[in-house]
Amino acid sequence: MSDKYKKLPKWADAFFDAFAKYGSQEAARKVAEKSGGPKSPSSISNWKRYSDAFRLELDKARIRHGELLEAELTRRAMHGRPEQVIYRGQIAYQRNPSTGQLLRDENEQFIPVVIRKYSDALLTLKLRAELPEKYGGTDQLAMVAMRDAKDHEDHEAPSKEEFKKRLRKLREVRKAELVVLDGGKSS
Q1: C-alpha to C-alpha distance for 61 and 42, rounded to whole angstroms
Q2: 130-135 — which CB contacts under 8 Å span 24+ positions?
Q3: Dihedral of CA 168/172/174/175: which sign?
């Protein structure tokens, strides 16, 4: 390994910050290029190949990017996003309930009717990630069974039979929870 890769370059902080923000090595490289960073993607590949410190910082930036994505997912799922109401192909505007006249803002622009849209799909995804035992599918149940096995006192992986037994038990518990949630209608 060349001495070049022993110490992180001056442009590295700009690269890692941009990667954390955009989640793209190419976008991060372009930002770093403005700080004297590499003009070629192959330079980033070389840094990843030869520098343990670079790989470590890139992993940290990847985690920061994942946290940003998770925060955005939570915001959209739980807090929603504003969306203008369209009625008969036109933007709907707020009206004075007494007079029926269109309302204007401080700039004399009409004020659109805005509703808050939530994402049930993102909320479901978040629930499956946070509570796989309750909201996940079979693959999540298998992960839970393995996690429980690792938490067991002997800290050894369970036998195949023991694993199947634990997975069956988790499925039974989940099925019972679904029956309760469904008001006893599930079969």
Answers
A1: 19
A2: 133/170, 133/173, 133/174, 134/174, 134/177
A3: positive
Q: Give whole-number Cα distances, 46 to 23, 31, 42, 93, 165, in Å.
A: 19, 18, 6, 56, 48
Task: Read off the pLDDT of residues 51-85 as tens digits, 9 standing for 90 and up.
Answer: 999 999 999 999 999 999 989 888 888 888 899 99
5-62 tens-digit pLDDT: 889 999 999 999 999 999 999 999 999 999 999 999 999 999 999 999 999 999 999 9
How far apart, in whole angstroms, are the C-alpha atoms of residue 146 and residue 152? 10
CA distance 187 to 166: 22
Number of H helices, E strands in the chain: 8, 4
Query: Same domain for 95 and 39?
Result: no
Residues 72 and 86 in one domain: no
CA 2 from chain center: how many Å? 37
Contact of 73 with 24, CB cutoff 8 Å: no
**Domain match, 88 and 32 both:** no
Provide the residue range defining the domain that includes 95: 81-117
pTM higher than 0.85 for the full model? no
Query: Per the domain annotation, does 126 fall within a domain?
Result: no
CA–centroid distance for 119 within its chain? 13
Task: Specify whether the CB–CB gap between 15 and 43 falls below 8 A.
Answer: no
